[in-house]
Amino acid sequence: xxxxxxxxxxxxxxxxxxxxxxxxxxxxxxxxxxxxxxxxxxxxxxxxxxxxxxxxxxxxxxxxxxxxxxxxxxxxxxxxxxxxxxxxxxxxxxxxxxxxxxxxxxxxxxxxxxxxxxxxxxxxxxxxxxxxxxxxxxxxxxxxxxxxxxxxxxxxxxxxxxxxxxxxxxxxxxxxxxxxxxxxxxxxxxxxxxxxxxxxxxxxxxxxxxxxxxxxxxxxxxxxxxxxxxxxxxxxxxxxxxxxxxxxxxxxxxxxxxxxxxxxxxxxxxxxxxxxxxxxxxxxxxxxxxxxxxxxxxxxxxxxxxxxxxxxxxxxxxxxx
Length: 321
What we know:
mainly beta, Neuraminidase, 4-stranded antiparallel sheet, 1 helix, 32 strands, about 5% helix
């Protein structure tokens, strides 16, 4: 009997040690899941504060390259690298394919305006790289695409990056409803990502070190009139995506592990003064960022772990309030 009690005591102590280790390694986030084939949304709870991460069901099979959230809070994603279609997260339970591409063989980038209109750059069947609109059931081609990525600001203005490597001309273009017009200021190297805050300021990141004659280390800000540097700039490696929250904090996602001397696994926040990590970050490259109206951040990319939980290529981050 005493030996039996001893075994029970040892087993209890071992369990407590393992649980303690899990909590420590997750640095404040503890997730509980069911088996993968049954998993929908993991149960998460914050132990010591900090951002909470959640998967979106079982995720998607391939790297997510683009994310957008409509005015109703519905999340859309595309995986240009492997599949041409668009997918939507339905009712917090599952993904549905909204379009298989139709007369587009691939969707490179897309955005959604406040009215629910969806605009995309993609490969048109027999017509090259095109600018198109999706009406909810089919695609209509609006013209030739001016770039390979697409962004939208809070006033529904569309932007793209135009990287003409052969002529060493790197600019941002804005759509006026009929034509793509160049935003003042040329960059001295490739533009990778754009982001917009609620005040209408535009942020650009890439491999450049100057724009419009202003020194700017891989990131710059356009206030509608002039360009300026953002502090000492970025030394983050590759930054693929930018997004701003309603408080004006700037988030950068890419393929790096430090930001401003702080460990930050592929995603970091700039509060106007310094960089900080979002929990444990992600185990693979970030390719897309988008906020919903509630301030939740959706992240897409090549990862399978977000904040210590299983999240296949797409995840939701609930920042600290």
